[in-house]
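haha ok so turns out i had the wrong file open the whole time. this is the CORRECT one, sorry everyone. sequence first:
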Amino acid sequence: MSIGIVSPQVMHFAEPLPLQSGAKLADYALTYETYGALNADKSNAVLVCHALNASHHVAGVYQDEPDNVGWWDNMVGPGKALDTDKFFVIGVNNLGSCFGSTGPMHTNPATGKPYGADFPVVTVEDWVNAQALLADQLGIRQFAAVMGGSLGGMQALAWSMMFPDRLRHCLVIASTPRLSAQNIAFNDVARQAILADPDFHGGDFYAHGVVPKNGLRVARMVGHITYLSDDDMAEKFGRDLRSGSYQFGFGIDFEIESYLRYQGDKFSTYFDANTYLLITKALDYFDPAEKFGGDLAQAFACTKAQFLLVSFTTDWRFSPERSREMVQALVKNRSRVSYAEIDAPHGHDAFLLDDSRYMKVVGEYYQRIWQEMPKPSATGEQA
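then structure:
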């Protein structure tokens, strides 16, 4: 059952936000959505953090866009794994995005023009600091859980380390404590495609009335390859030819080529090039163990949350080995941690799909959170 029609909300912040780079972001806004009802003691709130090309629109649909379904609608809603009949769920759009929160497309108050290339580089930790300020405004001092997949999982990890008293559970899906050299390489190839597009204009393409579509297309094609497994691509496309025979040119011969170009074309119509650069850099920079000499256990030493980690066997971008590494670091700290490794053929994108085993693991974990929560007594006081 879907949560139905939802509406985004906007929270403005006048106080400048200090960033890890040393810069400050003044007069910014965060776009967010909420689902379900916040209970009297505000103990049932769950923060859902989004991945690279997603947003605050986690579940439900918009009144005027019935086909715009939330990116995790299969996970969040009445009776679903994250049950909005029990939990108050918040989805926040990250700074630097192109889906509502202050980003490169917005006006720089210092110049009166779009930020463009002047928008400061932001990090996972910067996003988490901004999310904490939003939680303050909503009167939520502690989340029942912070949850995310992929880049969203990095944010959940950062929450557990930066604000250990502000979450009771941390759910990290198909994620990693740091990118491998291969992952950084893929991100850089994608960025170079954008930077080399003549329509990019050094990031100030808004003033020229153009979009670096070719760069965005290639960036999306490169990224999309990393989200799929070899088995999944083989099953869906194999070596199938689009027209049944070779064309002996450099156009589209294979169905996989057609699919990737379709994905790239679609992406270039709605995603901002500067946002793509910013978010992939945030991915590259995330490495909480770096200041501990690479010792992940030390990085987790301050955490107090209970953890659920989920990985997928065919996810070669954020492989199960990375999740096991986190589990081992948490166990070393005697943290309470559950781990599920799901045998699924879909690669990294599996965290967005409807695998029944995956949904059961997450649903049962949230049921445990719900059962462990203090319940109001008949007098209205906590039992």
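Confidence is low (pLDDT under 50) at residues 378-383.
again sry for the mixup
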